[in-house]
Recover the amino acids of this structure.
């Protein structure tokens, strides 16, 4: 323990003569016999500093996150071949509930510019388009059974998407209309190629092998 003037607040100490205490510096006697620690590790002054540094640290991290380039491009690649929906109603239902992640006509609201939301949204759109994309009907697409199963099981539209998108909060009747409409659209305008599950597994395997992690074998 040093002697000399000491800032009691900063060190979590109180002079023993409590009645005379006022925030500020105190002369520390040899052996610091005139000072006692404020009771409890989370004393008033310490806690205030910890909370202050935590908030400041979080804010600095938030600012640094904005400098990460991933998720800001918001690219909408060209439509190579659009699915011809059976009716405008089906198209509207799909656009409102699925289109932002399963077409190349994604709308990017302002908050998709703010990290870390931007990272999550960019990742979902990339992943969603890679699996099912009504703007690339000339590329392999899942069969209609898989699409309908995603909807009937409640897996799609993605739960994260619904709170901020009323158009994705489908009623039972709308869900049924979307499923019937997609089935008719597939029948009228089937995708040129279906994505087979074995081809996907092979693609996933080769991605895993060429990735930065060593393969399991
Ligand atoms: C917020 C983005 C988002 C929305 C909205 C969304 N999806 Fe998806 N969808 C994804 C992502 C991400 C995946 C891939 C990961 C997964 O399966 O969860 C996916 C996967 C799929 C797949 C492929 C499953 C497979 O077997 O490969 C289908 C089909 C699908 N979604 C249909 C739909 C339909 C239909 C809607 C609208 C009712 C919809 N999605 C809404 C993001 C979304």
């Amino acid at each position: 323990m040093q002697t000399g003037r000491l800032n009691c607040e900063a060190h979590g100490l109180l002079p023993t003569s409590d009645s005379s205490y006022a925030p500020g510096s105190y002369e520390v006697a040899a052996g610091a016999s005139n000072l006692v620690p404020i009771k409890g590790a989370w004393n008033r002054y310490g806690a205030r500093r910890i909370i202050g540094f935590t908030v400041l640290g979080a804010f600095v991290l938030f600012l640094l996150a904005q400098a990460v380039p991933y998720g800001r491009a918001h690219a909408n690649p060209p439509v190579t071949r659009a699915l011809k929906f059976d009716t405008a109603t089906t198209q509207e239902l799909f656009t409102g509930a699925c289109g932002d992640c399963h077409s190349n006509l994604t709308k990017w609201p302002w908050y998709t510019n703010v990290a870390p939301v931007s990272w999550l949204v960019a990742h979902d759109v990339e992943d969603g388009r890679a699996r099912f994309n009504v703007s690339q009907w000339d590329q392999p697409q899942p069969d209609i059974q898989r699409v309908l199963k995603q909807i009937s099981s409640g897996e799609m539209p993605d739960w994260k998407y619904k709170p901020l998108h009323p158009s994705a909060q489908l009623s039972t009747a709308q869900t049924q209309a979307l499923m019937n409409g997609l089935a008719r659209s597939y029948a009228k305008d089937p995708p040129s190629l279906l994505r087979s599950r074995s081809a996907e597994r092979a693609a996933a395997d080769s991605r895993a092998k060429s990735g930065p992690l060593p393969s399991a074998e």
